[in-house]
């Protein structure tokens, strides 16, 4: 297609065209994606469906609609769960279209100084001044531990102090798991020896949120890896994976974070690079897509992505786990969208859960559908997120399971809030690492 002179005058339209038009034209508008899309189901609008958003991207790339007035909101309301990709009969790369559209919209907002809302300003502060700095995140995590340890959190919750600042943050603060003591933290740069004979050396990616406020799950991850014969190295110079930046359209920042991680893990000499967060793992596995046009980095990123594994994959490969305790009760599983839809990992978590002595595993209807955590989606689109979550909890109740298992920190917080909202007092939401470690008597 030849771009008209009018369109060439608009560099944002031209950039969107270059980045998305060929991929968007792959969509045949068949509608197979509609039943897979949680926002289409909850909002009932074609503009909030994958094919609707793709059509809007095409129209914007042709200069027929305005990027900010007509495209920004539908793209922003997308969860980015990518379930549509698994349903698509012609393999439309929706994830690429979605992130490219985000990138162009964000670029225009930044350059034309349209990011004026308090929410956007807060988002940019968090993305640029918090997540890329693991020491700041650890300080925040340690402060949260002290906040909980001293009981100040209970007082704050009674007075609804956090909710007065932000209702969504107040809701999630109430269900935040207990943060483990700073003195139990693993150290970046350390190597942890295997239990028994060494089978392989792996490098561990602790992530951002996991490292800051869920470090116990990371510690248990390291110990589970040790229990199946892994020597575990934690590269010192690793950083945030960049997923949140990419999902918010800040692609240049995401690339810089990716470069730092590639360099850090390349020098580890590890056979696999292990993570325990579905969202982080999906980003790590798609680093090669970030550098398609970069000759210097593409092959390095491709090699990095090939070595990236979820914790459940390696535990199945090197298992069986050394179970020592019986699990009492029923367990169900909520897929991490990015673990299932991007990384293609769905059988391994279920295989591990079914292998736990004494546990009764029951499949939840719609377990492959998004819980509406979506990175920070549940913070910036709280009401839309809760509609999807409440429906998810109805499905969870039908299983009669006492434990809902997840494989991603955002999903874990979302499901914990879902338990709180549904009044299911005898139900708990846990990360799969917590469940497996308990059954192995690892504390």
TrEMBL record:
The keyword Plastid does not apply. Keywords: 4Fe-4S, Electron transport, Iron, Iron-sulfur, Metal-binding, Repeat, Transport. Residues 17-48, 68-98 form the 4Fe-4S ferredoxin-type domain. Its cofactor is [4Fe-4S] cluster. Its EC number is 1.1.99.14. Binds 2 [4Fe-4S] clusters. SUPFAM superfamilies: alpha-helical ferredoxin (SSF46548). It catalyses: (R)-lactate + A = pyruvate + AH2; glycolate + A = glyoxylate + AH2. Gene3D superfamilies: Alpha-helical ferredoxin. InterPro entries: 4Fe4S_Fe-S-bd, 4Fe4S_Fe_S_CS, Cys_rich_dom, Glc_ox_4Fe-4S, Helical_ferredxn. Component of a complex that catalyzes the oxidation of glycolate to glyoxylate. This is Glycolate oxidase iron-sulfur subunit.
